[in-house]
Amino acid sequence: MLTAVLLFGGAGAQGATSTPAGQNATQAAPAQPAPENTDADGRNDSVGTGVAEVERTAPIPLTLEQERQAQRIGSKLHCPICSGESIAQSQTDISRQMMNEVRDGIRQGQSERQILERFVASYGERILMEPPRRGINWLLWGFPVGALLLGVGLWQGYLRRASRAPERTLTAEEERRIAELLRERQGGEERV
User: Where are the transmembrane segments (predicted)?
Assistant: First the structure.
């Protein structure tokens, strides 16, 4: 519809010259049949002309729940040019285009998994904010948990050893020697 207004509005503006002869030529021109690349209402056919109509390209708005789903999926995809940001957070043009692709997938009824798989097929697994839990990536997921468990085990072992009573008892000679040292020390303190 916008294209038709521009086409017919442009023809009227071109025909409106300042000379009366130009006005008469425009008014006297016979009506020409519609070009082959228009539909019955006179609108340009977007396939034949390459010009898409505004009515046909305006995306259907998402519901609130669908937009939340788009944000959730977008937070799982890494921005290709940003450092540590998801496409839902980033304000770059590529991230906005990728978010529009996510929204289009939701409009088409694709599941989260299908949308994520489409991006992985295009960009590789590095596009995911979290590496998948398979293969060598298990080390990435398991290492922090394993290190934490090892640390807790070492700490508990240290506390057990530090809090337990000594296993060895003193001999009679060692006890006598300790008592003698204590008496000497007390005797030395009384003289001062």
Answer: 138-159
* Matching residue, tokens 């303190």: 189
* Model pLDDT for residues 66-76, shown as the tens digit of each residue: 999 999 999 99
User: Alpha helix locations (H) across the chain?
Assistant: 2-15, 20-28, 46-49, 54-57, 64-74, 93-107, 112-123, 137-163, 172-191
pTM: 0.44
Instruction: Give the number of other CB atoms < 10 A from CB of residue 46.
Output: 15
CA distance 22 to 40: 30
Query: What tens digit of pLDDT does each residue of 70-104 get?
Result: 999 999 998 888 888 999 998 999 999 999 999 99
Close Cβ partners of 99 (under 8 Å, ≥ 6 residues apart): 70, 74, 87, 88
